[in-house]
Design a protein that fits this description.
By secondary structure, the chain is an alpha/beta fold. Helix content is 55%, strand content 12%. The chain has 4 domains: 418 residues, no CATH class; 109 residues, Multidrug efflux transporter AcrB pore domain like (Alpha-Beta Plaits); 86 residues, Alpha-Beta Plaits (2-Layer Sandwich); 198 residues, Rossmann fold. It contains 28 helices and 19 strands. The strands form 5 sheets. The chain has a 5-stranded parallel sheet, with helices on both faces. β16, α25 and β17 form a beta-alpha-beta unit. α2 runs antiparallel to α10, α6 runs antiparallel to α7 and α7 packs antiparallel against α10. The longest helix is centred in the middle third of the chain and has 35 residues. The two termini are 26 Å apart.
Length: 920
Amino acid sequence: MSSRLYRLGRAAFRRRRAVVLVWLLILVTGFALMGALSKGTDDTVRIPGASSQSALDTLDRVFPQVSGASGKIVVVVPDRVSVRSQPVQDAIGEAVDEIDALDQVATVASPFSPLVNGAISADDTAAIITIQFDGQRNTITPATLDAVRQSAADLQSRLGAGAQVDVGGTAFDNVIPTISVVEAIGVVLALIFLTIFLRNVLAAFVPIVMALVGVAVTESLVYAATGFMTIMSTTVLLSVMIGLAVGIDYSLFIISRYRDNLAQRLEPEEAAARSIATAGTAVVFAGVTVIIALVGLFVARIPFLTIMGVASAFGVGTAVCVATTLLPATLGFFGARITPRTRRRRDGSDSFFGHWVRLVTARPLITIVLVVAAVTVLALPARGLRLSLPMESAAKPGSEVRTTYDTISEKFGPGYNGPLIVVVNVLDSTDPVQGMTDLGDDLATIDGVARIAMDTPNEAGTYGIVQVIPTGSPDSAATADLVQALRAQGPAMAEKYDFRDFAVTGITAVAVDVSAKLTRALLPYGVFVVGLSLVLLVMVFGSVAVPIKATVGYLLSILASFGVTTSIFVDGHLAGLLGADFTGSLICFLPIIVMGVLFGLAMDYEVFLVSRTAEEYAHSGDPVQAIHEGFCKAAPVVTTAALIMLSVFAMFIPEGSSGIIKPIATALTVGVFVDAFCVRMTLVPAVLKLLGHRAWSMPERLARVLPHFDVEGAALSRQLSLEGWPADSSEAVAARGMTVRDRDGRALTRPIDLDLYPGQVVVLTGPEGSGKSELLLGLTGRLTGFDGDARVAGYLLPERNAAVRARSVLTSGRGDVIAVLAEGLHRHAVLAAVDDADAVIGANRTAEVKDLIGELAASGTCVLLTGTNPGAVAHVLPGGIAPVAIPMTPPVPARLGAGHHQGTDEPSAPLSTILEEASR
């Protein structure tokens, strides 16, 4: 990957004007599509397959009068006046008639109607006019809503001073997250942090501009997508928040590496190409992890959540594309003007980070215990986590919706804000009207039911509804329990009256079902994310201990995030300080969204911090020195990146809606802080110190199954340093000082030099233990642990092992040598290797092998043979071929040196087993 990104960065730098024009075209196209296709966001929640959704769809067909969005007008008169007085009744009746005549209004229920029960408060000082609209909230025109507001205002005038008329309900619900000036402060803070870290104002502006371009492209296309799919307003704001944060961070990582390269006196073009190949590789990896985690939200099988994840993932993908293409093109215009004034100090032992890493690793066990204990304390409140969908109670205090909600709660009880609707099929009943009344009386006996507001069949006599008023608020645990109780006891009650298809629905029931479904999805999603992190990090670091440590750290960050957020928004602690006027529950998709986003960010910090440590360990072999040097090099940029994330997320807290954005922003802010500073910057160095060499080992079978990603571009650096070797590009196989080693660093061969051309035949002879078999494994791309340099078919080993394996064949004289060599001939392999060639026994078998070796050599394939008996090997060589004979002797025992290329070392194993697996 680093090689491809190197070429991409160089190409973008050279063709900078074309790249900038392409991105401008994408941006203009996005805004054009948005203008032509956008129909606006829609906060209607649907959960296909849920019983409440099925019942709601049924109501839409058979009882449209109660299936659409609803509105409420609450009339409150002074204490000494009764709403039952004739002047008040007349004024309310006039308002009902006005509203009933409006377009898009299906029905208007007067509080004095004989069909309505409980619409007048116990003290006769308040009454509720219920309005049922034709269609859902997003289909109701502003003109209709304004007309209802005007009727309410006229009613207020007729009632005179002292009376209060409020308008609310789901149709007027304006709990739509928007971006305010406060969020822009996060960008300003990010700019300040960038300026302090980069010490260059021009360089500091670049990540901000890159992030804004990515967000603009993303949001324009997301709004364009509203033309043919339902997208919630929360989706838009969430994708802005995530896209802005990762966009700044990704560009920061790359531009920081670019300036380091300039400080090393590289030409700007080369500096840009190498920064994309090194830091860009880590950016791509981090971005892919975030994308997979966000797209993985489909496990909940809830459409709006899947769309939310896909839109946010698209924003992250756009940020990655901007960072790897538009950023190097932009750097092409700046050239060397953002070069640091002084070369950065390579030894950071005397810096703050140097002192910090020595402190946390001095007593690693104590550090681990303290961090885990602190995080556990923060996580404890998560036991009281409660989830729900946002209702009118989450609206901003003082808004018409919130005022109406609070008035109804005060005068009638909280349950009136979230009635449940029981739907039954009454076709088999002989007296559906009386049956519905009796069913309502039965349902009123269930614990948690405050009142039955309505019980009636539809005009066609096919379905009936019972409107149940709970004792608890719509988002309370008591209401959720009532929904389950109705579903458990209701069918038996309905059966008494020959009713069937009993279902509980309504906005409140849908919210309960969504919360329950998301709660059930948390475990499989958590397993998906944790499993993904383990596999990805094993491939990155070639280790098992490091990924386990990283995943445990991620879980600690998640638990702390949930604990603090629950303490604030459920328990109410410090809620006033954050302006959280709505407490008691969290938006139901908060846990799964935070898990996905924080997973990507945690892996981001893990990769940038630990990969530097891994790089230092590969060079020095000293785990303690590697921790200190790697931390000092990576910690400043990780700290800056974390501070930027915190500033962006935290600025969505003050003005964010209490029901949706405020708790999500809080959870992400806490999660980033704990993960970056408590886990990655404190726990990680301590754990690595405690593990020592064991942190960088991996089992043999796992090493062969999983690929290895070079996220820091060490392979590219080596490839660039060997770009002119060998001088003769026609060589098929070239090796220089190649010494194969086992997992413990012991040399298995003496240093070997090879310069082989197409069609040459080479015989390696020596006793058992001379390492000739292991040398074949290394040269055919099936081994990673060796010193020195080797290149086969132009591909550097071990970095391009996969490419070499595809262009070579390897077999043993004791195996199916004929079939393997025939395959090599068919594939036009560059290298064909036969271990233990002197074991080929049998006249017919020897003749066939001899013929195949001759054909391979004639076709330009380089042939490598090994054996302990040179005379026996000669029996398989065709006449006319003069092989290159190289004797091999066992090496002098030695330990791993600094020149060792540590990818994923293959532990020693029976060669026959490796060859058997390779042939498969």
